Amino acid sequence: MAEQITIERAQQLKQKPDENKLGFGQYYTDHMFILEYHADKGWHSGRVVPYQNISLDPAAKVFHYGQTVFEGLKAYRTESGIKLFRPTKNFERLNKSNARLSIPPIDEKLAYEGLIQLLNVDRDWVPSVEGTSLYIRPFIIATEAALGVNPSLSYLFMIIMSPVGAYYAEGVNPVKIHVESHFVRAVAGGVGEAKTAGNYAAGLNAQEEAKEQGYSQVLWLDGVHRKFIEEVGSMNVFFKLNGVVVTPMLNGSILDGITRNSVITLLKHWGVPVEERRVSIDELIEAHHNGTLEEAFGTGTAAVISPIGELSYHGEKYVINGGETGELSAKIYDTITGIQNGKLEDPFGWLVALD
Amino acid sequence: MAEQITIERAQQLKQKPDENKLGFGQYYTDHMFILEYHADKGWHSGRVVPYQNISLDPAAKVFHYGQTVFEGLKAYRTESGIKLFRPTKNFERLNKSNARLSIPPIDEKLAYEGLIQLLNVDRDWVPSVEGTSLYIRPFIIATEAALGVNPSLSYLFMIIMSPVGAYYAEGVNPVKIHVESHFVRAVAGGVGEAKTAGNYAAGLNAQEEAKEQGYSQVLWLDGVHRKFIEEVGSMNVFFKLNGVVVTPMLNGSILDGITRNSVITLLKHWGVPVEERRVSIDELIEAHHNGTLEEAFGTGTAAVISPIGELSYHGEKYVINGGETGELSAKIYDTITGIQNGKLEDPFGWLVALD
């Protein structure tokens, strides 16, 4: 359809925040990308515009029935220019989420082109301090003003961007995790595999309770047997058991994480045995007793690698690797972030240059 | 706190739609109610204002993490004035949903007072044609512009209203229902009991597939055993089995429906045996074979009573009561709608007068 993306530049640019105090998702760049969908026109009117509020009818379906999906990826400032990490994966996954949420598929190339144009306009916002990056949030919301429970006839696809530091206040230091035995995040047959708002809303209660007890996040167990590991917080999770790295297989209720995929690829490249399979909490506890639960870590775009120093389950505490970041966890973190910031070779072709 | 609710009237009123062609949730009244929450001020600034778009930062948490709850209730025009059906139940349930979604509790009296003031301003919108009513949609959305996955620090509570006719095109005629064996709506430990957006988003795929096959809605089975009945579409469900009315017990994954509660109350009042317990699809099929599956119907605010004329499960069709509305289903429908529109006595004190 050769849709033309238009660009409207902000008349006044914001003052950029201190790169040493970015936090996560607190500041937004000067512009955003918008693409509209109407049932009779398809996706249309792609444009880069000044970052601004959006105006919606209070009956818009996103407010009532949660028909929405999102993605998260990052751009990095390297010595050889601005680079994106595996961006096409995100747009592929966005369309998988769309299918699960009854949202019409987006033209992945058009969405990607929108991102490139937006990044080009806001390129000065990609921070350069070590450990920082530009977090990119594409998302789609249902905008039809109608209270019947049906898929919306209109949508907005948007991309907003935020310069970020570390996701966890702890940085890459190990976090303490509460194994959740009451609340459930998702179940087979549900939307756990999709990157959609409801999955995150469902996790807030458990997360708040865990925080009150001094834990950073929860480890989710499956909703059927209440014993198989699913995710940690909003990340995928890995365990090193007697030299073998194990992660829950993709079962329909966990996210097909891009960092997860990158970690598996890296481990195979290194010749480290890695298994995608069911992992039960009982297996982990037995491994802890045997001294073979060597390392544990979460993986996600926001935190990259988040080492787990302690698990709490049914009142018992299980310290992992003396509460320190494991050797392999550190090596994976250093390698992925090294590839991302251009300081290490990129043997997998993960980086895509903006220019 | 004796918060004062202010009223700003619309300068121009909309033309009212034809009361014989209202549909469901297509038209909105001239005004809406807004109440704001900020972590440092609590709920404040309650006001009735002209119905209008709301302006939100694209990073508002409702778009990304689905932190939102809603309610649905109706006002009726009766010969003795405008009446609400059990409205305080809705505000009680809203706060239960709030607790599950980590949203701060609302002052139920203030929210209710907001509704009364709004209804008073828009009282001409309560339709009078038989079968019509004014559908009222209170809802809360998380408005903080921050991408960390945490409860929002700010919210909007709003009430919008829509004059409605029948929810289903079929009216009170029986609908055909597909028993869903692949998709799952909710699971124990999840948010199925809360009236929150994600539950509805999760159901769209199954609903669309059912529609393609000629069914109005799906009958949800539990996510653990995949055999116990949960809900039908977004309604609670009842079965008359050999003279006994059976409905799934409140188990944490189904909604505590106000119409469900009204039906149970009514049946007990009539001396009809009613049981809240687990009901399996196998039990229903066996009852069908035995000729004891006498009636089936969904209950909800939107449709009140929706008779089920046929179930489809694993390719087999099970016609109920010859595909006709059952005698008891019709009696319940006539009684509840008769109480609602003021034509029958209200022995339970369910109606609350606006004036």
Automatic annotation (TrEMBL), chains A, B:
<dbReference type="InterPro" id="IPR001544">
    <property type="entry name" value="Aminotrans_IV"/>
</dbReference>
<keyword id="KW-0663">Pyridoxal phosphate</keyword>
<dbReference type="Pfam" id="PF01063">
    <property type="entry name" value="Aminotran_4"/>
</dbReference>
<feature type="modified residue" description="N6-(pyridoxal phosphate)lysine">
    <location>
        <position position="195"/>
    </location>
</feature>
<dbReference type="GO" id="GO:0008652">
    <property type="term" value="P:amino acid biosynthetic process"/>
</dbReference>
<protein>
    <recommendedName>
        <fullName>Branched-chain-amino-acid aminotransferase</fullName>
        <ecNumber>2.6.1.42</ecNumber>
    </recommendedName>
</protein>
<dbReference type="InterPro" id="IPR043131">
    <property type="entry name" value="BCAT-like_N"/>
</dbReference>
<dbReference type="GO" id="GO:0004084">
    <property type="term" value="F:branched-chain-amino-acid transaminase activity"/>
</dbReference>
<dbReference type="InterPro" id="IPR005786">
    <property type="entry name" value="B_amino_transII"/>
</dbReference>
<comment type="pathway">
    <text>Amino-acid biosynthesis; L-leucine biosynthesis; L-leucine from 3-methyl-2-oxobutanoate: step 4/4.</text>
</comment>
<dbReference type="GO" id="GO:0009082">
    <property type="term" value="P:branched-chain amino acid biosynthetic process"/>
</dbReference>
<comment type="similarity">
    <text>Belongs to the class-IV pyridoxal-phosphate-dependent aminotransferase family.</text>
</comment>
<keyword id="KW-0100">Branched-chain amino acid biosynthesis</keyword>
<dbReference type="InterPro" id="IPR033939">
    <property type="entry name" value="BCAT_family"/>
</dbReference>
<keyword id="KW-0032">Aminotransferase</keyword>
<dbReference type="InterPro" id="IPR043132">
    <property type="entry name" value="BCAT-like_C"/>
</dbReference>
<keyword id="KW-0028">Amino-acid biosynthesis</keyword>
<dbReference type="InterPro" id="IPR036038">
    <property type="entry name" value="Aminotransferase-like"/>
</dbReference>
<dbReference type="InterPro" id="IPR018300">
    <property type="entry name" value="Aminotrans_IV_CS"/>
</dbReference>
<comment type="pathway">
    <text>Amino-acid biosynthesis; L-isoleucine biosynthesis; L-isoleucine from 2-oxobutanoate: step 4/4.</text>
</comment>
<keyword id="KW-0808">Transferase</keyword>
